[in-house]
């Protein structure tokens, strides 16, 4: 992700990338040369010495908390890749630090800037589904050897718990999950999770590092029909509910009640570029980030609750956390 941020930031004419940090010498040399920026082997030294208005933290998950805290202490606005932190207490500390210092944190839940997700949110807001019955999310692909410090739940499922909360327009009140460890040496690489929302909406997430092909999909089923979304192709379709008393046959024998399905048009763009646009607007003009520290905290809390549910083999109630 650091390379992607570097690519986009060096191409902007409204911001200047003045410093980069990477403990790997070869990577640092390439990044510094690409950006024509001062290179630092130690990120904390960069935060202390460089003149910065803002910083992007795209580093291993275990480093997010100390680096973001150091930036906040220096009054530097922060865009930190998801997850915000590795544990709920670390996330709590960052939320409180951002509030007490008056410095913004934006969390890199990049799917919130996916144009298909934005269009889905707009259509739900305008009432295409009067009631949302169920939301199903699948995020699967091969094991990324670079991820060693956390499992698939913290690394990937944080996307999905955030998106499900966004689509449902509320946060869940209880969760349950099952996990498995097949190829990762230290952490789980498969998660099936259930999320129950106050309105009665049920969410299911299917996340793994075991699938040989990358898949990123979301399905939202409601009273008037069903949305299907593909994050990668930025495709969104809607299938209307139909009369189940009059089925037609597939291949002459398999009954179906499938309704009319349409592809929904919208303008596409690169989500990460839009995320950086939003962050720089906050740095320049103030205001609340689209995905702020509290949103990031909730993703960590929900991922931690899913892991706890799988470990303890029970449903986790979130009432106490919600009341914080």
Summarize this, please?
By secondary structure, the chain is of the alpha/beta class. It is built from ten helices and 16 strands. The chain folds into two domains: 2-109 and 273-293, 3-Layer(aba) Sandwich (Rossmann fold); 112-270 and 300-322, Dihydrodipicolinate Reductase, domain 2 (2-Layer Sandwich).
Can you tell me about this structure?
The protein is of the alpha/beta class and 324 residues long. The protein folds into two domains: 129 residues, 3-Layer(aba) Sandwich (Rossmann fold), CATH 3.40.50.720; 182 residues, Dihydrodipicolinate Reductase, domain 2 (2-Layer Sandwich). Helix content is 36%, strand content 25%. It is built from ten helices and 16 strands. The protein has a nine-stranded mixed sheet with strand order 15-12-11-10-6-9-8-7-16. A three-stranded parallel sheet has the order 3-4-5, sandwiched between helices. Helix 5 packs antiparallel against helix 9. The protein is globular. It starts with a helix and ends with a helix. The model has no long low-confidence stretch (mean pLDDT 94).
Task: Set down the secondary structure blueprint.
Blueprint: H1 2-10, E1 19-21, H2 25-35, E2 38-40, H3 43-49, E3 54-57, H4 64-73, E4 77-81, H5 88-101, E5 105-108, H6 115-125, E6 132-140, H7 152-168, E7 174-180, E8 190-196, E9 202-208, E10 215-222, E11 225-230, E12 235-240, E13 248-250, E14 254-256, E15 261-263, H8 271-285, H9 293-312, E16 316-317, H10 319-322
Parallel strand pairs: 1-2, 3-4, 4-5, 6-9
Antiparallel strand pairs: 6-10, 7-8, 7-16, 8-9, 10-11, 11-12, 12-15, 13-14
Helix pairs in contact: 4-5, 5-9, 7-9
């Amino acid at each position: 992700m650091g390379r992607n941020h570097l690519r986009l930031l060096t191409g902007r004419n409204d911001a200047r990338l003045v410093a980069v940090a990477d403990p790997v010498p070869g990577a640092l040399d390439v990044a510094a040369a690409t950006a024509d920026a001062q290179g630092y082997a130690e990120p904390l030294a960069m935060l202390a010495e460089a003149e910065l208005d803002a910083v992007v933290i795209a580093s291993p998950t275990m480093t997010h908390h100390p680096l973001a805290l150091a930036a906040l202490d220096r009054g530097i606005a922060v865009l930190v890749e998801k997850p915000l932190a590795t544990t709920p207490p670390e996330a709590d500390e960052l939320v409180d630090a951002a509030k007490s210092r008056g410095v913004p944190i934006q969390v890199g839940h990049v799917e919130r800037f996916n144009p298909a997700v934005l269009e889905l949110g707009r259509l739900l807001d305008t009432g295409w589904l009067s009631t949302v019955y169920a939301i199903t999310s699948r995020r699967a692909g091969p094991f990324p050897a670079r991820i060693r410090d956390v499992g698939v739940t913290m690394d990937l499922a944080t996307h999905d718990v955030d998106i499900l909360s966004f689509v449902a327009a509320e946060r869940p009140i209880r969760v349950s999950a099952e996990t498995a460890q097949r190829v990762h040496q230290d952490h789980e690489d498969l998660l099936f999770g259930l999320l129950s929302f106050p309105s009665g909406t049920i969410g299911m997430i299917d996340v793994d590092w075991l699938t040989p092909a990358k898949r990123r999909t979301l399905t939202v089923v409601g009273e008037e029909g069903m949305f299907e979304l593909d994050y990668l192709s930025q495709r969104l379709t809607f299938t209307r509910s139909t009369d189940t008393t009059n089925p037609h046959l597939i291949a002459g024998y398999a009954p179906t009640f499938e309704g009319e399905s349409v592809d929904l048009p919208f303008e596409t763009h690169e989500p990460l570029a839009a995320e950086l646009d939003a962050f720089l607007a906050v740095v320049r003009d103030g205001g609340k980030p689209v995905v702020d520290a509290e949103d990031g905290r909730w993703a960590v809390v929900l991922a931690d609750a899913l892991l706890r549910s799988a470990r303890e083999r029970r449903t986790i109630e979130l009432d106490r956390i919600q009341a914080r």
